[in-house]
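writing this on my phone so excuse typos. first protein, seq and then structure
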Amino acid sequence: MSGEVVRPDQRTRETPFYIPAKDAPERPRYTLKHNDTFAVIDSHGDIGVASGESDGMFNQDTRFLSRLELLVNNKPTLLLGSGVRSDNEMVRADLTNPDFIDDHGNILLSKDSIHIVRTLFVWNDTLFTRLGIHNFADRDVELQMDLLFGNDFADIFEARGMRRAKRGVEATAVLDPNDVELQYTSLDGVPYTTTVHFDPAPNLLSEHRATYRLRLPPKGRSSVFIAIAVGKIHNKRGSDFFLNLRSSARARVRTCQSDIDVHTSSDIFNQIVARSLADLRLLMTHTPEGNYPYAGVPWYSTTFGRDGLITALQLLWCMPSVASGVLRKLAALQATAFDPANDAEPGKIIHEMRKGEMARLREVPFGRYYGSVDATPLFVLLAGEYAERTGDFDLISKLWPNIEAALEWIDSHSLKDPDGFLRHARNSEDGLVNQGWKDSYDSIFHADGSLAEGTIALVEVQAYVVAAKRSIAPVARQLGFKEKADRLLRDADELASRIEQFFWSEELNIYGIALDGKGRLCRVKTSNAGHVLYSGAASHDRARRVMQTMLSPTFLSGWGLRTVADGESRYNPMSYHNGSIWPHDNALAALGFARYGFKGAAATVLEALSGAASRMELNRLPELFCGFRRSKGQAPTNYPVACSPQAWASATPLALLQACLGFAFDVRQHRISVLNPVLPSFIDKAVVRNLQIGAHLVDVGFYRDNRGAVQSEVLRNEANVEVVTS
């Protein structure tokens, strides 16, 4: 271990946008989302009541509701049970009353006499709530039901722990017997409004409380509806609970009709995949350029370049339309000018986009922030892979100027390095120090634990450049740029040779994570080497050795592959990047193993991550979890502030399945190939439905025969698509 002394304030000084961990929540949290609006709600249906992670209703990096609390006779309700529906469309909480006791100790109303069903969903920038009240007592019951509400209009960075020296001006107005407006004017003069609408009108409505006085006969029922909107509610249609619930349900049905469908002999894996698909639908957000998978809830519900690109690459085999929206959106946001404060340079692909007050005022640098070194080659790679997968050269032709600008940025920066590597360093002190996917301040280090300094060349970034140039070269040729295509292939081969020369560590039997500013190799065993295999930049022999190293117990915890191997100087299974397990990182490694023919290794990773998901809440893989060794009878250990759901984690089960099954698509030949399919030990049969090739759909089944070999069978084939198994 390193002998470095870390002062108490060092982490927050080095990482000013660090998300502090808080106490474990008193109540579990549920997430609802539609496009740019999401709500984090506790198990009672309340907001801002229980300690722990921040909750609320948010839109475009601003909180629009910070408190919503239900009291019955001035007391909190008792929880019977709650949960989010399997399709993520709705949260339901079943509540009841506590014992109501007078000053003399007499029970006025016994607990469990009143049943309250609290139903919530988000649609069109509005949080809709229905309270269904049912009297199970054998006599008339009089109740006072209060709803306490309010808002702080906190920026998302405030909600996650940052402090501000100054804020804007808040105000509240009771508009009429049904409506209250919560108002805020930001420091830069932008007005914000939350409208809270009650139906029927409460008996008493003030700026932060609605009071209902109910009299219910035995078995009597009553309902209260609340619509809480970002902005104003302009008509009754906008606040109608059932009308909007039907609209939400119809939209979901339309979305699901053509979605990929996976069913296997394992009920647990079926639930994991169903959860992943539901979470991907939740995170998919409509933008003017098309649907985009926002990175994660709550902290990353916005456009992240790297996250969107990797998610689209993971899903390309089964949901190619995701790539179309990602490419269009990132092309529209591509930098066209130099802006050192935002790490922007012509051709560079955006890292993160924020629309909140703190971003507009430069209190955080993320309005349009370009501080990632890998998003630009990944953009080129996705463009090439999308063209190969879909044959959509109309889109690629429109995006060709963006692709050329990205290639120019890659080449211009690589030429600055004597060895031709793509390096990174921030242009502003406010920016990120490390600009690969492991962007913690301490994630790039030497064997002795000292941090890498100077301009950094990450091994996976060089591999992404190799893959990008090889992938886009056939596209360039198709578009008539033969010389450019030849040069791209030549450049890729030369760079692959230099990766072998400069990054391979014979001692470690794996690629080192990076070269520092002095050209010294960071000789540390990390999962970054798996991305080299994913990119196809390794020789076959070294790919085999990387696979063997990564499947050793120092990497493979039993729940998945660690980001840093046990035994390295900065290994910490509770850290963000230095020993934890990231599902998307495992998926790329598994796809890399499969690329070189190591299908058994890919199945091992699928089995480990499936085991982890089966023990997690909702069978949902989070952004990351701790890298402790798997122990009998124990679940994986959660990482305290992990986003859940997170887009590239949600895409992981599907990417792992592809690593095992090995679909390849040739649109020009109207052919689907299945390359050496395998199934993990806990799955004997699998059916993949609605595989898209061109405008047609194909269903393919897989089963393990009596010799243990995996066979495939075409179950549906529109327009005689050729399906070949090899």
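second protein below, same order as before
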Amino acid sequence: MLLKKLMVIFSLGFTMFICPQISHAYDAEYYQEPYRNQVHFSPEFGWMNDPNGLVYYHGLYHMFYQYYPYGLLWGPMHWGHVISTDLTHWIPQKIALYPDAQGNIFSGSIIIDKKNDSGFGKDTMIAFYTNDRKGIQDQRMAVSHDEGQTWKKIHEPIMRNPGIKDWRDPNVFWYEKDKKWIMVLAAQHKAMFYSSKNLKQWTLMSTFGSTDQSKGVWECPSLMRLPVENSNQKKWVLQISRTDGSPAGGTGVEYFVGDFNGQHFIQSRKLKRRDWVNYGADYYAAIPWNNLEGPRGERVTIAWMSNWKYAERIPTTPWRNSMTLPVSLTLVKMGDSFRLKQTPIYHLKPQDGHIRFHQKTIQPSTNVLKGHKFKVGEIKAEFDLSKSNAKEFGFRLREGVGQYTKIGYQVTTHQLLVDRSHSSDFHFNSDITGVHAIHMNPTNHKIQLHIFLDRSSIEVFGNDGIRVITDQIFPRAKSDRISLYSSGGHTVITSFVLQPFTSIWGSSPLVSNIKKWQTIKGIWADSISGKVGQSEGEGSILSNRMGKNFEYESDVTILNKHYINKITGTGGLIFYSDKVAKNMYVAALDVSHKSVQLIKYDNGKRMVIAQKPMTLIGNQKYHLKVVARQHLIKIYLDKNLVIEKEDPTFKQGLVGLYTFQSTSAFQNIRLKLKTKMR
């Protein structure tokens, strides 16, 4: 069912998809780490790359994604999951698909089986994904009967590997004309097209490959039919991601325009140039939402906002990588070829600091935005070249001591550019250029720029989205000034709007009567699972709450990252701690050694001073409670007293959380101070 409620409206001069608005509270610390984007999606915790399984169903936009929840580097792939009612505000869900003994869960797509073609049931949500086991890739299915909340894998492959390396990322859609399902797979330097009537048996129909195979393999293909603006025509667009060779360097997304007859994709016109969806360095693995079209047949896509040349090194914690803004796609006829047009989709709340003016001449020696600060929001500007004699004009954003990012237009060469060579102290990669530019002709002597600035990213849509540049930046927090510049002459700006935005992130999902925490060791974050800590060694986080007589308790889950019931690590409750967690007690659940332990750290030296053998397993929630009465310590597990110990070393101190060689989650954290001894 196509989304009938999807409407196109015009607001502030841009096109957007309007959806039901949802209300969010704001949390002063949740999603407020340095470089955390405020209007782009990023996971609460851990590593993220490709968007997967984009599907619209029953009023919700589902976005799954490649996810490793146990650290900040790429690891065995899971499918993370978030939902939205407006493609802007995202609500985390539990992990959808886990790797197992069969292999890792690579990228793929999701469809709604409305007529029960598969035999799994009408309206079943079916995920198609690449299973990767030691580099051998095949295609598999998983099914959900509760709208993506729980999944059952079909462990037998629906398509076994035919002896092709890098054979992955199935993108499945319904082809109405022939009443069949189409799957597009990437295979090294080509796309392979398959068809099926029952979603289980697939027949190879054809392949399409580029003659330029110099750099990078193909990944994350998608095939979609798009409307050509100002006509009744529609064309098919094949979009592929390339692991190397993009204009900015490294990964990027290329597209081909043509026709599809149900068996073959035929490129309309082989061009000497290569067409890229985005000319920045940070745009990859873009795919469309299934079960979703606009009134004219527009499709909606989103991309991973990073680059494999440096994605594992960007200076963010406790997460790595973000998504771009979603965009609506159409085609525009330009001469005898077609260009992709991208219209950003957003439903953001304005913040104070709005600036607007019209018909202003900008001289080289002036900055009409002097004194203004700008970190998160949008700029919309139109420049009139017929009344200007400047050689270059544009904006410098996130200006500070020795730092700025320039968005400019070079008049003589007709180049739209983003220069991030002075944007941060982070060294991206020697293979990645500092200036990212693309040719863009004026329209009726006008240049239009629509810029989205976030804490660590910039997205620039030129001339209504005919050209787009997306880049990450990592400026210092104090680099927050803005300039409007004109070089080599004056520039006439016909209209200008600057609108700051509030954050899309709401309240923390952590349930606790303790509000302030300070990380000591490891990586810690609030997530749907509670307060989560990860460390290959010892990890600790301390609260600002101190006591000597109290009850301190929490639900504790030691997450099993080995997936196949192998041993995992330890998680527990810290109490009577000093400010640096060198002198303290820990009530610990040691899954590796199957015991509940009372651990004492004396000037950093670790000693187990009491323990109780218990059958503990990973991924199971336990309730751990400490009752402390100065030197008397009692530890309860699921309401049962398991350890009672007197130790006079520490009699008061801070409470906190602990993890050791594991990822541990803590939820429903409660501290109850006792003023009287019994």
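Residues 1-26 have pLDDT under 50 and may be disordered. thats all i got for now
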